[in-house]
Amino acid sequence: xxxxxxxVSGQLGSFFSSQxxxxxxxxxxxxxxxxxxxxxxxxxxxxAAGKYDILINCAAYTDVEKAExxxxxxxxxxxxxxxxxxxxxxxxxxLLVHFSTDYIFDGMSQKPYQETDKPxxxxxxxxxxxxxxxxxxxxxxxxxxxxxxxxxxxxxxGFTSKLxxxxxxHNVLKIASDEVSAPTFAGHVPNVILSAVEKNLEGIFHINxxxxxSRYEWARYFAEQNNWANTIxxxxxxxxxKTQARRPGFSVxxxxxxxxxxxxxxxxxxxAVKESxxxxxx
Length: 282
Ligand SMILES: NC(=O)c1ccc[n+]([C@@H]2O[C@H](COP(=O)([O-])OP(=O)(O)OC[C@H]3O[C@@H](n4cnc5c(N)ncnc54)[C@H](OP(=O)(O)O)[C@@H]3O)[C@@H](O)[C@H]2O)c1
Prior knowledge:
Layout: E1 2-6, H1 11-22, E2 26-30, H2 40-46, E3 54-57, H3 64-67, H4 71-92, E4 95-101, H5 124-139, E5 143-148, E6 151-152, H6 159-169, E7 172-176, E8 180-181, E9 184-185, H7 189-198, E10 203-206, E11 213-214, H8 215-225, E12 232-236, H9 256-259, H10 269-278
Parallel strand pairs: 1-2, 1-3, 3-4, 4-5, 5-10, 6-9, 7-12
Antiparallel strand pairs: 8-11
Helix pairs in contact: 4-5, 8-10
């Protein structure tokens, strides 16, 4: 199995790289400097016939706030680039592994979203990711799209890293209690994807740690596990923060479809948070 990873220096790309290395798999990891996925010419060269069996595309525009005003870059990376990536994959029989988000949903559901539920993004990032999904689906290539939510682990600009920075500056942190999803340890995603590839699975799958919580509950649990004695965490409403992008109030996804084929159960979010703290990859 010959694998190419684009966006290898990002949060998820780094975990794929280290876990494939540990598993002794053949892969080439490309950072943005080695392969800008916006370049059709470079994509053609890198994905030339016979070089790879699988492309794991971890490259993405992920700044939800900035996306509202930097729309051109966001749509180019999250959607337009998928046109030539999926075309190359179709032409050369490469399986395209790609990632989407719970932000394709509007958050109005009362129960965890299933893969068959109708998307209705309420921010530009979510809309760009949904457009990417549609382009891949229409391309005729073999694909596996993992929709992820609230990814954490090893990223400076991620929520848990932000919590640590805010804690250095304030004694009281106000965190949204009306924004609910499932924190997902990026380190758990590669194993799920590799199980799915092993089973020749194709299509769209919800991949997230089990259960769900508000950002406030996540912050409280994270603080408790890190023994933050002097930090007070208070609940607040999303509307009290000045943000550019709207976020779904409830975007927990049901992971039963992918769970059924996994070698190991996907842990609940609290176990995932604990594991990341134990491994010091917060
Ligand atoms: N983070 C989350 O909470 C979350 C939630 C749901 C779904 N997802 C999805 O999960 C996937 C992985 O996210 P992540 O958290 O690992 O993102 P990330 O840490 O922001 O990594 C994305 C990587 O893509 C690279 N990149 C951006 N534009 C590129 C281009 N034109 N060509 C090549 N590389 C480019 C970035 O490079 P630079 O650093 O140089 O920009 C970065 O290394 C994405 O598809 C994302 O939409 C993430």
